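Board notes (copied after class):
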Amino acid sequence: MDPQKEALHRIIATLASKNEELHSFIDTLSHSLRGVQENSSKVILDLDEEFDSLYSVLDEMKASMTNTIKLEQARKMQELQNQHSQSISALESSEELLEFANNALDIKDPEGFTKAAKQIKDRVTMAPAFRLTMKPKATDCMTHLMVDFSQERQMIQSLKFLPVPSAPEVDFSDCLVADNSVTVAWRMPEDSKIEYYILEYRKTNHDGLPRVKDERCWEVVDNIKATEYSLTDLKFDSKYMNFRVRACNKAAAGDYSNPITLETRAFNFSLDSTSSHQNLKVEDGCVEWDSAGGKGQESKIKGKENKGRSGTPSPKRTSVSSRPPSVRGSRDRFTGESYTVLGDTCIDNGQHYWEVKAQKDCKSYSLGVAFRNLGKFDQLGKTNTSWCIHVNNWLQATFAAKHNNKAKTLDMPVPDRIGVYCDFDGGQLLFYNADTKQLLHTFKTKFTQPILPAFMVWCGGLTLFTGLQVPSAVKCFQKTENGLSGSANSLNSVVH
């Protein structure tokens, strides 16, 4: 290509990338503008509600305190009114007695005077005026019900918006991605009374800052007490994951931290149903033996062919070799006794790992890798283009590693779940007990062309687990093994 054209292509690619970045940034700004408007309306509404609630409390307190004053007023007035009425009655009685006593002084008859004096004495003794207390039962003082809200007024005048926690700072260097787990660590920029943290994450295939219009939603982990959190047992079916954290106190949740993007690459593939033997049923990462597979379709096809031979060939007749891919009978790339299905993704570099679990009643199965040109009649491990371990639970139980029609018996129990590690560039294929990471067998070779995961099953089924990173235990074992001449559990080979 002309150097100027090549340079122009690079400029175009750079501009296109920058335009995409700008589009994403504009979407972020538009989203933020809408958010500011919506959130401002929300907090104003919340403010109105809080003040209405405060007004309501003040009105209730005023009504209650006013009622207390009125009750005290009524009590005192009742007491004083009673005393007032009693005093008036006593005064009237006393004035009458005084008048009677004055009149008694004018009595000339000694006997009549003595009698009157005795009556006056008796009436004075029983007179209400001498039985009443001359001290008011209530005073007119109401100062005990006065109020001073100066402190409360200062408190109200000092009302402020809630103290919102600062945004945490995610420490990228302390974040770890390993063994299909992600540990995210963060710190607070200042001392704050934090009740808990909220971690949000989502999977993405875009590097860099998270996009507003991403195809996946944020998932939330709430009520985290520490300043780090680990997500475990993840399936890494995306290239990256976005993370962000916010702190919460008793009052409110703070702003999100600046989001970070961590790489979560892993080997993801599915079973290629178009390559499977007609007696295999492939569905959602599982392959099962189907003894009746393809028979119904074959009978239909034979019926059409026989019908076509009786007269003019029908233009709608479908031959075995030209059946559409959607028809199950057409996907019998492997045939005969090669009950095989391949993965749909080639391996042409790097290190990859996946796991397989067999059904408990599976009579025979194999798992490994093969070149793409594996013949449709070829069985795994019986050619120089395939490598596998084989488990046979029918008649005589065997557990062996197979390649190029050679077998090596593996003297160990068959694990419930088997891990497969492929180092394409290093020319190694290793099988592990997926639970204990015990090495089962090692193939050392030189892969001269891309390879595919390969599986064979008869009378049973296999479940495939992908999106797995190379386990740390396997990596450590590989570092230990590097430089050594080989493993006792190995079949060395070079394929040209």
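Comment from the instructor: The longest strand covers residues 196-204. The helical segments are 3-104, 110-126, 150-157, 295-309, 472-481.
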